[in-house]
């Protein structure tokens, strides 16, 4: 009887330990399944969208219960647990055809006329074929720095799949236009003179 009681106690302990281990192992699985259902119902993104996740741009190719499958710009397939997707900030650029705004910041010195800077930046944007005419590109002054004015050129595009290339081409056009019009967007002249 004592042996049977000991075996019963050991069996009960093993059952409790096994149940606890399985329970802890299942928490992540259940959490991912619930997160997957939330993603499918609320649709913060859908298959075909281009998103920015943890600083990487990627296309959503499949949304499953446990994982969301992404393909980044290098062609690498990434399986992200759905719980992680719900806990991180995601920027959704949507699909091609959806208009998004992109910005480029430049910092010319205070000595350069504001209207000239704005015209040069807008003309640069208009030289990039993928930049839309409607809505038109525009320029804001974000802030005054110690030795420069921070301007931001905003442009609108529809070709989401080529966003990084368009952004790069826009930077090239801004650089070329600023050089052509003698607008120094490097460290302002006053600051260079102080450090020399």
In short:
The chain has 196 residues and is an alpha+beta fold. The chain has helices at residues 2-42, 82-87, 114-126, 163-180, 189-195, and strands at residues 50-53, 56-63, 67-72, 77-81, 90-94, 100-106, 138-144, 149-157.
Report on the architecture of this protein.
The protein is elongated, with a radius of gyration of 27 Å. The chain folds into two domains: 1-95, SH3 type barrels (Roll); 100-195, Alpha-Beta Plaits, CATH 3.30.70.100. It has helices spanning 2-42, 82-87, 114-126, 163-180, 189-195; strands at 50-53, 56-63, 67-72, 77-81, 90-94, 100-106, 138-144, 149-157. The protein is 43% helix and 26% strand. By secondary structure, it is an alpha+beta fold. The strands form two sheets. The chain has a five-stranded antiparallel sheet. Strands 6-8-7 form a three-stranded antiparallel sheet, covered by helices on one side. It starts with a helix and ends with a helix.
